[in-house]
Design a protein that fits this description.
single chain, 312 residues, alpha+beta, Substrate Binding Domain Of Dnak, Chain:A, Domain 2, 3 domains, 5-stranded antiparallel β-sheet, 16% strand
Length: 312
C-alpha cells in the first residue's frame, strides 16, 4: 500500500532523529517503556476481534501506534521481537504480562532496575510521570527531539488560541477582556508550575512527560473556555415561549435525560412553551445547557435547551 506523503515525511524524520547505536549501555527510558506497556500493548488485545488467531497482531495496530513503534526500532535497548511476542500473548489471552517481566524483556532493564510506574517519588522536577503518552508524542522517538515534541503540541495550541480569540470577541468588552487576559496568564503560570517548560535544554528523560502534561493542560483549558463561550452564545433559558433550532427535530422525552423515553418531536423552528427552566444540567453534541420542562400535548415533557432560542 502506498504511504501518504505526510507519513513518509514523518518516518524519514524519525529515522534521521534516531541514529543506530551499536552499544546498548542503558535501558529504554522509563517514559517510553511505560507507554509501550500501557498503551501499545493494550492495543494488541483489541486485534483479536478482527483476527481471532492473533497470528501477527503487532502488524495490525493503528497507524499512530505503528509509527511510534517504528521510532523505537532504531534504539538498541528496544527488543522488537520481545514486544511482538508480548503482543501475541496479550491478544490471545486478553491479558498483559507483569510490567517487571515486560520491562526486562522488551526495554532491556535489569530485574533490579525496573521503576515502579505506579509510585510517585519526591523529585526536584515538577513533571509527573504520565501513565500513557499520546501516540504523536511517543512517535518523536527516543532522543530528545525538541522540534518533534513541539510540533505535537501545535494543534492543541492552535485550538486554544482560536477558542480564546472567539471568547474575547464574544465579550467585546475591555474590562472583561482584561480579566480574561489575567486569567489566562494565571493559568499559564500554574501550568508551568505543574508541568515545567518544554525547552531545547529539557532533559531527554523528562521531555516526553513534560510534553504530555502540557498537552493535557492545553486541552483542559480549551474545554473550559469553550464552555464559557457556549454559555455566552446560549444564555440561560427562562420560562416562556421559545423556538427549536434542532435539525431535523428536537426530541421530547418523558424525563430530563437522553435515556428518557421519546414521547414526541418538535420540528426545526417549532415553538415550545417552557414551564420550568434548569431542571438538570447536561452537555449534548458539544453544547452545554439544561433540560427544561415544557408543555406537551395534554401534559408535559422535557427537552434540552441547547437547541432553543427566543422567538424571532
Amino acid at each position: 500500500m502506498k504511504q501518504p506523503h505526510h507519513s513518509k515525511k514523518l518516518l524519514l524524520m524519525l529515522s534521521l532523529a534516531l541514529p543506530v547505536i551499536t552499544n546498548a549501555a542503558t535501558p529504554l527510558p522509563n517514559d517510553y517503556c511505560t507507554w509501550l506497556y500501557n498503551q501499545a500493548l493494550d492495543t494488541c488485545k483489541t486485534v483479536k476481534s478482527a483476527d481471532p488467531s492473533c497470528a501477527n497482531p503487532h502488524n495490525q495496530l493503528p497507524s499512530a501506534i505503528a509509527q511510534a513503534l517504528f521510532a523505537f526500532s532504531n534504539h538498541p535497548s528496544y527488543v522488537a521481537a520481545a514486544f511482538a511476542n508480548a503482543c501475541v500473548d496479550s491478544c490471545k489471552n486478553n491479558q498483559k504480562p507483569e510490567y517487571n517481566t515486560f520491562a526486562v524483556a522488551v526495554c532491556s532493564y535489569a530485574p533490579n532496575e525496573v521503576t515502579n510506574t505506579t509510585t510517585n517519588t519526591a523529585s526536584s522536577t515538577p513533571t509527573p510521570l504520565p501513565i500513557q503518552l499520546n501516540a504523536d508524542i511517543a512517535a518523536c522517538g527516543i532522543e530528545n527531539n525538541w522540534d518533534c515534541l513541539n510540533n505535537a503540541l501545535r494543534p492543541a495550541k492552535k485550538q486554544l488560541n482560536q477558542t480564546y480569540q472567539a471568547l474575547a470577541a464574544a465579550y467585546n468588552d475591555a474590562t472583561k477582556n482584561m480579566q480574561l487576559d489575567t486569567e489566562q496568564r494565571t493559568w499559564l503560570d500554574q501550568r508551568n508550575l505543574k508541568c515545567g517548560k518544554l525547552e531545547v535544554t529539557t532533559p531527554a528523560n523528562t521531555a516526553p512527560a513534560t510534553t504530555q502534561c502540557i498537552l493535557e493542560a492545553l486541552e483542559q483549558r480549551t474545554q473550559q473556555l469553550s464552555q464559557t463561550l457556549a454559555t455566552l452564545k446560549n444564555p440561560s433559558i427562562a420560562t416562556g415561549w421559545y423556538q427549536s433550532t434542532a435539525k431535523p427535530v428536537l426530541v421530547v422525552r418523558d424525563k430530563p435525560d437522553v435515556a428518557g423515553k421519546k414521547i414526541g418531536t418538535v420540528p426545526d423552528r417549532g415553538k415550545v412553551h417552557v414551564l420550568t427552566a434548569k431542571v438538570k444540567a447536561d452537555s449534548i453534541s458539544g453544547l452545554n445547557g439544561h433540560w427544561v420542562k415544557i408543555e406537551w400535548l395534554s401534559g408535559s415533557g422535557y427537552v434540552f435547551d441547547g437547541f432553543l432560542k427566543p422567538l424571532e
